[in-house]
Amino acid sequence: MHNEHLHIVSLHHRNASIERIGQLHVPEDRQEAFLTDLKTALGVEGIAYLTTCNRVEFMMVDEAYFCMGRLQQLFQAFHPDEEAMRDLMANAMVVHGDEAVRHLLRVSSGLESMVLGEREILTQVRKAMEQARAWGLAGDQLRITERVAVETAKRVFTETNIARLSVSVNALGWKAFREWGLAKDARLLMIGAGQTHANIARYLTKEGYTHVHVLNRTASKAEALAAPREWTWAGMDALHDALAQGPDAIFLCTGSDRAILDAAAASALPEKRVRVLDLSVPAGVDDAFRQRPDTEVMGIAELQPIAEANTAGRRAALGDCQKIVEEGMSELASRLQQRKVEKALRDLPALIAEVRHTALNEVFAAELDNLDGDSRELVDRIVQYLEKKYVSLPMRLAKEVVMEQLDQG
Length: 409
Known about the structure:
- The protein is about 60% helix and about 15% strand.
- It has helices at about 20, 30-40, 70-75, 80-90, 95-110, 120-135, 140-160, 170-180, 195-205, 220-225, 240-245, 265-270, 285-290, 300-315, 320-345, 350-365, 365-370, 375-409; strands at about 5-10, 45-50, 55-60, 95, 190, 210-215, 230-235, 250, 275-280, 295-300.
- It has a six-stranded parallel beta sheet with strand order 7-6-5-8-9-10. It has a four-stranded antiparallel beta sheet with strand order 2-3-1-4, with helices on both faces.
- It starts with 5 loop residues before the first strand and ends with a helix.
């Protein structure tokens, strides 16, 4: 059981298009059967499969080298056409041994993500590994590797600045809203019902905001977002009336090619302070609305410099992150060696027990029969003590030798 037995095939946002990556996606309800067949076809000892919107990783363990023939066999399981097969073979990242371990630890820690330092990937890696174990596909080495990968990623996220500085406009926008310090009973208007506002809606629900009104060009989408949360909703034709109600804050994110909040919208609002979080591209707020008194707008233009500065801050933490990754690699090597020793010595207790049985019941049977009860009990206790020591001492000494070899290496 060594690092060199780990092999990873990776297609990700740097070496493949999203469409090509999508061709290697297997629906979750089909993954167990698919991976079981793939493991048999490739003849590997263990396999796990990670799929995300911009990444596919095949993590495999086998003593035999993962050659180009096996790589082609892996891709053939997805029945690609000739052009796709050439593209996959030419661009797939295939790493072995220490490089495979380093890659997995970096992926788990968000260091290879499209958004540097994003945490969600750790959950996805852990789920992929757990499923492989639950389906009986992982084996000992992947189980130990998973544990070290999770521990390493947690260290990266807690001991460095890699994930402490938000870089997505959604997260930064939500942070700006929270800094406004609006009361939980504030009147909130949400214009648009796409994925961005679905994320904002989860935040609002978690924080306990209940007075939310959702507008969308397609009213049914506004209803789908609002109804489960017992919010109100309407179509965009109700914008003037919604503004007249005097919202304390407005969330704006639409696909419109013109500003939604303009001079007319400013006139519809009562004379009160209003804050706007505009995550639309292009901007959904024009200059006339911005000039309205008591109006604060936080848009992409204001958030982008913060995101860029935070990205630079995350990159500055890469050295600390890599140090933790290298320590994780050493820890994995140690655990794999220890596990190898444990497996090598797992028959030792049975062998010692057999020696004890032969000694007491054959070699020294006659002498023991002449002992009184107390003496016989004492002999049994001595033998049991020695048996335990003869089991534990070799294991301890073997582990010490392993650790010494690792330190010297």
